[in-house]
Every structure is written in C-alpha cells, then in structure tokens.
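Write out the bound-state structure for ISC.
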Amino acid sequence: MIKTKDNTIEDSLNTARERAKTNNASAFVSITEPIDKVNPVHFFQAGKWLDKSRIFWSVPDRSLYYVGIGEAVSYQESINAYQKLKHHWKQLIEQAMIFNDDSAITVGPKMFGGFPFDTNEQTSDLWKQFNGSEFRVPTYLLTIENGEAFLTINLFISAQSDVREIAQKLQRDRELLLSPVSMQKRTNSVLLSHEVDPEAWKELVAQTRTAIEDGYAEKIVIARELQIEFETSVELGYVLNHLLEVQNNSYVFLWEKNGTSFIGATPERLVWVKNQQLLSACLAGTAPRGRTTEEDRKIGEELLYDDKNREEHQYVVDMIKGALNGLADDVEIPQTPVLYPLKNLQHLYTPVEAMLRETITILDVAEKLHPTPALCGQPTERAMSFIRENELLERGWYGAPIGWFDHHFNGEFAVAIRSGLVKDNKASLFAGCGVVRGSDPEVEYEETKIKFQPMLHALGGSK
Ligand SMILES: C=C(O[C@H]1C=CC=C(C(=O)O)[C@@H]1O)C(=O)O
Ligand SMILES: [Mg+2]
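---
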C-alpha cells in the first residue's frame, strides 16, 4: 500500500499510470480531499443523474455519514464469502495507491456491502439483485464525520489510460455531485398495503411454539412480509430524510442496485471495530412505547422484568459471549439489560465490549456472530433449518450483516432489520419476532406490526 500526497487529481493519476507501466498491471487508486460540508441526502439525489448504483449509511447518533455512487470495484460471492472477501481485499489493498490530504488521513478506500441471511436459501425474483454476498468500492464516496466532509474518488488506472480525459470526466462528475439539489418535499402515496397471509403466519408461530415445547429448540425467530404498492415510483431521498429525522438511535442504510433498493432503519449493531477495539450489542425483547411519559415508563419497567422477553434476550447474550471466545480478550458484558428506546418501540439492550486478537478482522467476527439468536434462534443450526423449511418468505438480506470496512479492516456491520426492498412503485417490508416457550401468536403478530412502522411511515404509509 502506497500513501502519497499530490497536488491535483491529474498529478495523482499520472503517478498511478507510471506505476501501472512499471508493474504491467492496472493500479487501484484512491484519492481523498476535504470539501465544504454538503447535505448527504442531496449528494445521494445528485448521484441519480450519474445513473449509477448508490449506497447510503448513517450511524445512530448521526456523527457519521457515507454516501457512495457507482462501483469502482464490485465483488460477489455465494459461498464462504467472509473469508474469500477478506483475502480479496487484502490483495487489492496491498497494491492500492492511496492519495490523502493530511487532514483526511483516516479516509481512504472502503468496501460496502452485505451478506445473505442464509447462504443456502433458494431465492427467486424478489431478491435477484441482492443474491448472495455483494460488496463494492464506490467510485465516489462522500464521508461526513463529526461535521467534516471529504470526497474520495476510487478507480483503476492502466498504462494505456488517457489521464487527462479521465481527470476531466471526474471533475465534471464531482461538480455535478456537489452542486445544490432542490428536493421536493412530497410523500409517497400508498395505493395498497397487503399483509401476506397473517392467519397462516400466526399458525406458523403456534407450530413453532409447539416445536419448542417439544424440545426441538429453545428459540426460533419467525418473520413475515408486508407488500405495498404506491401511486408512483418511490422517492428514495424523501424516505432517507424521513428515516434520518424520525428514527433516532437507528442506523439508516440504503443499498441500490439496478433500480432495486434495500432500505432500513435498524437499531441493531452486529459489530464495530477500530484498532482492534470491538463493540457489539445484544438487542432482543420488545414492547411498544407509551402514549404518555408515565405509561412509557411503566411499559419499559414491565419489559425489563418480563420473563418471556428476558429469555429471548438472554439467548443472544449467551451466544455472543460464546462466539467471541477465541477471537477476543477482555470481553465485557453487563449482567442485566437496559432499555433501548426507539420512536415506535423499545427493546432490551446489552452492550458488548472486547479487544480483538491481533490477526482477527471484522469479517472473522461478523462470520462468527451471524446469525445471532436475535434473528435466528437457539441452537443456531436447528433454528436455521426450521426457518428454511417453514417460513413463508424469502429473507434475502433481511436480518443479515450490512455495512462497511476500510483498508485497516476497521468498520461496522449492522443487522439489516426494520427494512424493506423497494423497486419502482412496489415495496416488500420484513419484520420478525423471537418465539420461545409460551409465545402467544396474537402478541407476536402485534409485535411484528409495530416493527413494520418505521419503514411504513417513511414510505408514506399509515401515521
Ligand atoms: C427480528 C426482528 O427484531 C429482532 C430484534 C430485536 C427484537 C426482537 C424481538 O423482540 O423479537 C427480534 O429478535 C425484526 O425487527 O424484524
Ligand atoms: Mg420479541
């Protein structure tokens, strides 16, 4: 990996072309410059005019935004994706030429992508754009971190590249992406909203509970789908703005590919890594928010001491603790959960901290942690095959790791829940819940109903 400082994009590209000539191979180039602060959703909207696939990422406290346009590198894999991806990225990074302004020293090329919930799932039409694991290094990446903005341009340069022409094209795209965008403040108007067979779903929950009570497993998460049709194509910028504004304490993400977008506002962190310091979270167990402060406090208090929800939660804590064994030291997990409040509901939450061992990367951890019993069950294998055989929907990327990592394998993955797949004027939303001994299908049904709310509101559905 070479890090240099050069004056202009063209200078940097020329340096890269010389390298490509010497090595007789294309050079992977990443150039970062500080820029004036821009609105991330405007940048996302402007990206539409470049006719490229886009990604959007923001963290729960909104101290970080990434907006990516285009694909300088795209990587797809169906089996053993975590390890192959790690290997592939190491090779690419070893050869990379990273041009950073001093103030942008931590910025550089990043891979953004996701894994499927179940690599063995047979997907049909619905998930065809997100089939298997898919990662990309955006051609243009906007970073806004603690109020400072940077633009990173990633591309390959070969010995034959016309550097002047490429530099001019990059400059034109750059101007377009950074110019002000006027955004209509309009809602998407819902024509039709269809819950996929709620009665069959409740029966499945009852059947799952019976299987659990018969000793097949301790916990199994069962999800369902809500289909929506709109009057016109969904305005994605509007959806992002709504989620960013309303869904505090949640990651906001959007992955676009060939006109299909996977969007969500998830509260659930799978793993965050910086300089081998690791954060993870156990999030399971749910109750609604109260209408008054007093009611809210009472519901929260009941949730904290509710046996059924505590049981759902504890399986996640135990699994994550076990999975980190051998990967990390100094694992710290509090004995009891606290409340994690969201706009429409509240969860039981236990934070996890640890130090990763030297050779372990964020991808090794994501592979080991996914799927936690917050999305699958306990024991994992049994729950997974039960879901594969019985669930009435295709999960695709729902409930799976989604996020990014950089050239030092620092990065973050969230669990893609409170999410939906949007294409033109249609959307499919997904929500699940943890079934344990004594689960009541009606109560679980109501729980999934509130879990649809964040995306339903953002898409312009019920208030
Ligand atoms: C499976 C989902 O939520 C999980 C995360 C938090 C709480 C959960 C619960 O209480 O059942 C679920 O395990 C979903 O939102 O689709
Ligand atoms: Mg639950």
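---
The pocket of ISC (ligand 1) is lined by residues 221, 223, 268, 283-286, 312, 347, 374-375, 417-418, 431-434, 451 (CB under 6 Å).
The chain has a mean pLDDT of 94.
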